[in-house]
Specification:
This protein has five helices and seven strands. It has a seven-stranded mixed β-sheet with strand order 3-2-1-4-5-7-6. The two termini are 22 Å apart.
Length: 165
């Protein structure tokens, strides 16, 4: 099974209710599932949103760097049950304001799912390589109960290990 399918299956089982897929790109990591009521896709790229793999889902054109600069995400307090960011936090100039706003838009029992890989990504665009332990510490500082899970692929991957925080 390909890495993307393994990750999709894992994330879909952890998602519930109304879901925000932030920095979504053009592929969703959330499959249709009875525990997911709605998925809202958000990205800074208009082209990515046009090509997003689920045409029936709501889409927001929004650059999360605006949150780093002091704005708030365009969502209500407690609006989401799950927020997911996959292979994207390493491109934020400062993820802490974004994590704080994710905390705001999640309901009290909400899940924040972050997936990354220290060995992949566009090196010339990354602020820093993904570091799952640093991410877990930052999330705990915001108020999340954070842990790191090594996503087992059952085969060597050319990019190393994938992690869910």
């Amino acid at each position: 099974m390909k890495a993307k399918k393994i990750i999709e299956k894992l994330l879909t089982t952890k998602a519930k209710g109304k879901v925000l897929e932030a920095k979504c790109g053009f592929n969703s990591y959330f499959q249709d599932n009875e525990t997911i009521e709605e998925v809202v896709a958000m990205d800074f790229s208009e082209e990515a949103l046009k090509r997003y793999s689920h045409p029936g889902r709501t889409r927001y054109l929004y650059d999360m760097e605006q949150v780093v600069q002091g704005e708030r995400l365009p969502f209500e307090d407690g609006e989401f049950n799950t927020v997911g960011v996959f292979f994207g936090v390493n491109y934020l100039s400062d993820p802490m304001p974004v994590y704080n706003d994710f905390f705001r838009i999640l309901d009290n029992s909400g899940n924040l799912l972050i997936v990354g890989n220290p060995g992949s990504g566009y090196a010339d665009l990354q602020v820093a390589p993904f570091d799952p332990d640093r991410t877990a510490i930052q999330l705990a500082e915001v108020g999340f109960e954070a842990s790191v899970t090594d996503i087992q692929m059952h085969r060597e991957n050319q990019f190393g290990h994938y992690y869910l925080v």
